[in-house]
Amino acid sequence: MLIEFPDSTAASALGTRRSMASIRRADRVAREVQAELARLIQREVKDPRVQEVTFTRVELSEDLREARVFFVPLGGVGEEQRIDELLRGLKGAAAFLQRKVGRNLRLRFTPRLQFRYDVGVDNLVGIHDLMTGARASAFSSNQGQDQEDSGGEDGSA
Q1: 3-class DSSP state for residue 62?
Q2: Distance between CA atoms of 149 and 114, rounded to whole angstroms?
Q3: Cα separation, 50 vs 60, whole angstroms
Q4: 71: closest CA among 80, 83, 60?
Q5: For the chain, which domains are there?
Q6: Which of 99, 19, 21, 24 shows the shortest CA–CA distance to 60?
Q7: Ramachandran angles phi, psi of 30, nearest 5°
């Protein structure tokens, strides 16, 4: 007698474990790629256009063949011309960086590097500026209210 289970829970659980394991592996390899790229830029790439770059994150495809490398100019946000210059330098060094990353990390497949400016950093800076402005405004209005409550600047009524 053969019993068939149309939707095997064991099979779906195994598939979930595999995909979770591959996601964890992709995250681990992404961190290694990010660290290796930073090391290579600092020690081996001679192009002055890319000397002042920060890699904010790397997103790897599940099969580890594609890597989106997000960057910002060292120190945070930069003007558009500086970002374009960095991007041109990184694209120019991409083949060298790919080869070195694959060799140094001993990956079966060397991920194809795609460099992208990290606009999320601009968004964070904008939010920070808004919050700082709001706090300063609230502080100054509270200071004015305190002075009115005390009867003036010198405290006399």
Answers
A1: coil
A2: 60
A3: 22
A4: 83
A5: 22-118 (3.30.300.20)
A6: 24
A7: -60, -45
pLDDT, tens digit only, all 157 positions of the chain: 444 445 544 444 445 555 777 778 889 999 999 999 999 999 999 999 998 899 999 999 988 999 999 999 886 656 888 899 999 999 999 999 999 999 999 988 999 999 999 987 665 555 655 666 656 666 566 665 655 555 555 555 4
Among 112, 114, 105, CA closest to 32: 105
CA angle 68, 51, 119 (to 5 degrees): 40
Helices and strands of the chain, counted as H and E runs: 3, 3
State residue 137's pLDDT score.
Answer: 62
Question: Any idea what DSSP says for residue 70?
Answer: E
Cβ-based neighbour number of residue 37 at 10 Å? 25
The dihedrals phi and psi of 59, each to the nearest 5 degrees, come to -110, 120
Q: How far apart are the first and last CA of the chain?
A: 99
CA 63 – CA 113 distance, rounded (Å): 14
Structure-token pair, residue 22: 């591959």
Task: Give the pLDDT of residue 14.
Answer: 45
